[in-house]
Structure formats: C-alpha cells, structure tokens
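Record format v2
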Amino acid sequence: MNKRQVEYLFIAAALVVLIASAAINLGYVLGHTQNIPQPSDNKAVPSNSTVIQVLGYQWAWQFTYANNTTSTDTLYVTAGHEYTLQVTSKDVIHDLLIPSLGIQIYAVPDHPNQVSFEPEKTGKYIFECVEYCGEDHYLMRGYMVVSS
Amino acid sequence: MSTETLLIVAGILVSLVFIAAFYVYYLFSTRAEVLSRVAEDEGYSDRDAYVRDSLYGKPRPLSWSILFYDDAKSIGLRYIFTGMLFLFLAGAFGVLMRVSLTDPNPTILTPTIYNILLTQHATLMIYMFAIGMAMGFGYYILPSRLRLKRDNMGHLSSVAYWMWVLGGSLFVLSKSSMRWYLYPPLSLQLTPLGAGSYNWLAIIAMELVFMGMVMASVIILKIIFIDRADDIPLSRMPVFGWAIVFTLIMLVSSAPPLMVGLGMLFYDFFNPIFFVTATSTPLSFAVLFWFWGHPIVYIAVIPFFGLMYDIITRFSETKVYSYFSAVFSLGLLLILSELVWGHHLLNSGLGVDWVIFFTTMSFIVVIPSALTIFNMIATMWSAKKIRLTTPMLFVINAIFDFIIGGVMGVMLADEPINQAVHGTYFVTGHFHFIFVGLTLGISMATFYLLFPTFSNGRVYDERLARWHFYITAVGSFLMSFSWAVGGFLGMPRAVAGYFAMFQPYQDSAILGGVIIGIGQLVFLYNIATSWSKHPVTDPYNILEYRTETNQTLTSESNQMVGGGK
C-alpha cells in the first residue's frame, strides 16, 4: 500500500467507528426524548406518568409526591410505573444521578428540569448529587426504594 | 463579608499588585539598561541584536540570571520550572486527597480541607502546570528551531509571566473551595461552607492568570509568524510549531468569554445582576465557562502532540509519516474544540436538539484525534529501528493511555452513557488517563531530553529515569482504571466521603495515586543527584538544534501535494 492508501484507511477506520456510535446515539435520543433532561416549562408531562417534585438544597434532596407527602434523602417509587421528576434547587446548582437507572438531571435554581423513567426491578438503589455544591456535597446522597 | 470590607481589601490587593508589578518593571528596566551598556561596549547598536547573538547561538542553562534576562529562552525556562514547581504542589494535594479517602467517611482531612485541595489540584494542574509547560516549551524550543531573526517584546513576556505567577500564587493563598468550574451561586457564597471566605481573591487571581496567558500567547504567535527565519516557510515548520500555533489561537480566541464572565462574577459580589437574579440563570455562566473550559483541555494536550511527533521522529530516525495530516488534524481539533463544549452540560436541560448537536460534534472530534494517533503509530511502524530511550517510553505510554482515555471519551459522548456516568469517577478516569499519561508523561519526556541543556552538560541517571517511567505508568493506569470501573457503577467524583460499596475501587485508586507520587519522588531524587555531578556531555539537545536533515518532516507536505510516493 502506498502512503495515500494508508491515509485513506486511517480516515475510513475512524469514520466507521464514528458513524456507528453517532447513529446509535441519535437513535436512542430520538426514540427516548422523554428520558433526556430538558426544561420542564416547554415540555408536557407524559400522560401516564406520575410527577415527583424534587428540590435540592445544601445538602439534601427533598421529594414531594402526588399526594403532597414528602421524604428527604429517600425516594419511594413502584416498579413498572412511569415517573417524571421535576427537579429544581433552592440555592446552588446540584445534579441528581441515579446510576442504576442511568438518569441524571441538573437542579438549577428557578429553572426546573424534567426527566421521565420507569423502574423495573424492586430493590434499594443509591442516588447522589454529582455537581459539587460545597462543604457537605458528599452527604447529599440517599437511596431509591423500588417496591412492587 | 460586608461590601465595605470587601472593597477595602480589594483596593489594598490591587495596590499590592501594582506595587509588585512596578517592582518587577523596575528590576527589568535596570537590567535592560545594564544590558544596553554591555551591548554598546561589545560594539552593538541594538540591545536585542546583542542578546540574540550572545544567547541564541548557545544553549541556555538554568541559573538565577533567567529571572533578570528577558530573552525568550529565559522566559521559557521560567515557565518550565514554575510549571514543575506547581506540578509538585498540586500533585501533593492530589496524593493527600487520595490518602484521606481510605475510609468511606472523611478521616484525615475534613471536608472543608478536602474541597480546598480539590479546587487547588484542578486549577493549578491546568492553569499552572499544563499551560506553564506549553508556554515554556514554546518559548524555549521554538526560537532556536525557527532561528529567530530578532527577539523583542521581552519586557512584555516577562510581565505576562509575572502576572501568571502572581495569579497562581494568589489562587493558592485564597484557599478557594469553589472547584475549578466556578459555577455562580456557589462561588458567590463567601463562607467556609460554600466557596471559601476569600473566594473573591481567587476570582481576581484567575483574571490575572488569564491576562498573563493571553499576553504570552500573543507574543509567542508573533515570534512564530513574524520573527522566524526567512527560509522556514509555514509549510515547513516543525509539527511542534504548528501545535503551538493552534493551541495559542485556541487560547486567545476562547479565553475572552470566561474573562468577561469572571468580571461579571466579581461584580455580582457587590450587585448581583448577572447570574443570580430572577430573570437570569446561573447556567449562562456555565455556558461562558465551558466555551473556554473545553478548549482549555485541548490546550493542555495539543502542544504535547507536537512534542510527541518530534520525539518519535528523533528516536525512530525517520520522518513524520504524513506531515500534512499531522498538521491538518491538529487544525481540525482547533475548530472542533469550539463546537463541542455543550457536552459538559448535556444533562442540564439543554433540550433534545442541542443534545443531538453536541453529542454528534463530540463524535466528530474522534476523526482528528484518531488521525493523530494513527499517524504517530504509522511513523513508528515505518521506522527501521526504534531506540527505546526513556523519553520514547514515555511517548509510547502516552499513545497507549491516550487510546484508552480517548475511547472512554467517545463513550462519554454517547447521551445515554453520559447520563449514567457524567459527574462520576468515570470522567475523572477518562481525563486522568490523558493528562497523566500524555500531559505529564510528555512533559517529563521533554524535560529529560532538555536536561543536559538545563544543567549545562550533566546527564540524568538512565536507570532511575526508567524506574520513574515504570512506576508512573503503572500507578497512573491503576488509578485511572479503578476510577473508570468504579465510575461506571456510579461512584461520584469530587466527594470527601462515599458509599461503602465503592471501597474496593477507591482503595485501588489510592494505591495507584500513591504509586504515582512515589514515582515523582524518584524523579526528584534523580534530578537532584544528577545536578550535583560534574558536566560530562555536550549541552546541545536534539529538540532545539535539529539539523536540517533531521528536520525532514519538512519536505513531506510537498510530497503530499505531488500525490504520495
């Protein structure tokens, strides 16, 4: 192979990896728009999902459910049911991550974001704040309890 | 802190800065006068011509005089050694942070101190170490590689350097704990529990660092474009020269948004009208920050790509495989770096359209990065023999680490994966693979190559240097890889304590971090003992004074135009 052919091979190899990954990503994003964090002011809540209001503050998470009960640092959900988190913050920017669901959403003061998810398996999973928010940032974590 | 106190302290501080600047200026003007007199005695009418003739044909060893001469080489030495100093400071902070994480609850360090170290480690490593090395090698290597016609604007370079150092030192003193993102509602909290009581000082310090960096960048660009020898056209410039050009254009073009942002942030201390009112959002600062924050991570890498090409061609005794695609891919990185910053904010509520735009752009960055790495591998592939000296080992390790870190970067560009691992140690692992393997590794490789020149003909202990390499490589792999695995399970970064389930990953990362620290101690010991020995060799080094036949990467571009071999 001469030099130019080798270079074409370089570019082709890079392009194949790139296009495959980009296509997979695009397919996911377009097919799961409600699972992408977005401002809750320009997006309607999916019809069959329950809204949970989430408030982040230094340094805890507060969850307010449909029946106006609240819980702090523990999120109670039911398996097989779709939920929409509407997340905002009282003071600084926080970021709620539920690793086992692959859901992450910023809590920005005065600018609520929303994201939908559906837990499938029952159990107790962790969630945490992953945007540094001061002294006790590391304590801003808790458990998500999925009941049947 | 009340507004009045703040104003008084800020006033005193600004006056101190001006006094320091004036003192520096005074030192330089007296020194310049002395130099002019010497130049006149030697029969030169022009001081710069004298400095060039007396300093440029010769290697420039390290001595106290670098603080007083302001020719490009002295400035370069200042940058390199200040960068090294801050590397060890920030590195010590890093090791301390690791050690305090031996237990899921904060043990050795309180969360406050942990957060301060977290902020200092990131900021100093990027702004003082990576930028310092890039500027230093630019100032030090390019003048002799490009055989400068004249060396002027040294005073300005020197002022830029002192502003940069002053900024870095004030940042350390500020004990800021706002993390290097400086996101507003937090960075405006002047309490020990928020961003630290003296965070306003940190913002002034950052502004100083920025002014120094931008001034120095403009001067180096001028050196490259205007002052280089007439017989070195741009199309035949070494790849390192191009790498520096792209880096500095990137720096100059993307620093202003954050400089403006910092100014607005400082104003918000007194009169919060920009980022924390009902009609604005703190995320607008995040946008300003990442418009600069993404290019800065490329700025910390691209100059070292250039050095890698130089070191590989030297020890493989061959040319760069394709000069054209080497320069082209670095240039493409320059353009793309300005278009992908949104991938740091994918989950902040950008909306689906922007998510698609930024993730797709992030995948496109794969092309230039992959081209660069393929090009380096092809260069080594086409060599008849490769000499595995210590610098070459560092380069090979850098390629290895960059591939792993780069693939992790591609994974991060994928929105579903990004949602699951953004903000976890996976990201930390991703950029530590690249920064420890590439930025630190290549800095060390270049430092070893230039060591005989710095030390006026002394040689380092090859065996110890190899130990340094192996220890650093193993430690960095262990640390970054444990982070990558733990991060995939959701281990959050930037925390002083963690869920007990993450203990194994933290423990192995601690081991890796401590191993890296030991490796750097070996380096220090090696340098200290080698410096105390007698000079045994010629202080000329291959990076600065390549002969034309060695610099054959130059004729490459013509071949490309002519259709290959």
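The domain at 301-546 of chain B is CATH 1.20.210.10 (Cytochrome C Oxidase; Chain A).
Chain B touches chain A through 74 residues (CB under 8 Å).
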